[in-house]
Amino acid sequence: VQLQACGGGLVQAGGSLKLSCAASGQSFSDYAMGWFRQAPGKEREFVAVIRWNIGSTYYADSVKGRFTISRDKARNTMYLQMNSLKPEDTAVYSCAARDNANIMAIATMASARWFGSWGQGTQVTVSS
Fold first, then answer.
1. Contact criterion met (CB below 8 Å) for 53 and 71
2. What is the reported pLDDT for 25?
3. Which pLDDT does position 101 carry in this prediction?
């Protein structure tokens, strides 16, 4: 599967951005897709994940209530709506996908090690 992320940019604290991740290559019925981020000097961290077929979601505590992950099956595109952005949200955001997701509890997928396909990152910068 090929993933293409876009939508990053520079925004003031309290503002919003919407990231997109276009997926291509095959059917995604058994897939989960997620967003991860990596700030300078820090390890990559989980942001959110969604089951492609039924749309169930799971979020990192740091973004819960502010970010919303969704997908459009017709467009094979995943989104991350980010509201109430904070300077600490500044990072490179990457989308990822894994197959055979139905065998795993969604909370278990809150780790990059479970994802085998990655898109390039998109920079999100939140100014204070």
1. no
2. 81
3. 87
Using DSSP, state whether 121 is helix, strand or coil. coil
Whole-number Å distance between alpha carbons of 95 and 120:
8
**DSSP state letter for 40:** T
Bigger pLDDT: 26 vs 57: 57
Residue-wise pLDDT tens digits, 108-120: 999 999 999 999 9
- Which 3 state secondary structure label does DSSP give 103? helix
d(CA 112, CA 50): 14
Closest CA to 7 of 89, 80, 88, 84: 80
Cβ-based burial of 17 (10 A; exposed 0-12, middle 13-18, buried ≥19):
buried
User: Would you say 46 and 112 are in contact if contact means Cβ atoms under 8 Å apart?
Assistant: yes
- Collapse the DSSP code of 88 into the 3-class scheme (helix H, G, I; strand E, B; otherwise coil) and give the result: helix
User: Phi/psi at 114 (nearest 5 deg)?
Assistant: -90, 0
Q: How does strand 9-12 pair with strand 32-38? A: unpaired
- Amino acid found at 106: I
Are the C-beta atoms of 33 and 46 separated by less than 8 Å? Answer: no
Residue 94's pLDDT is what? 98
pLDDT for res 111: 93
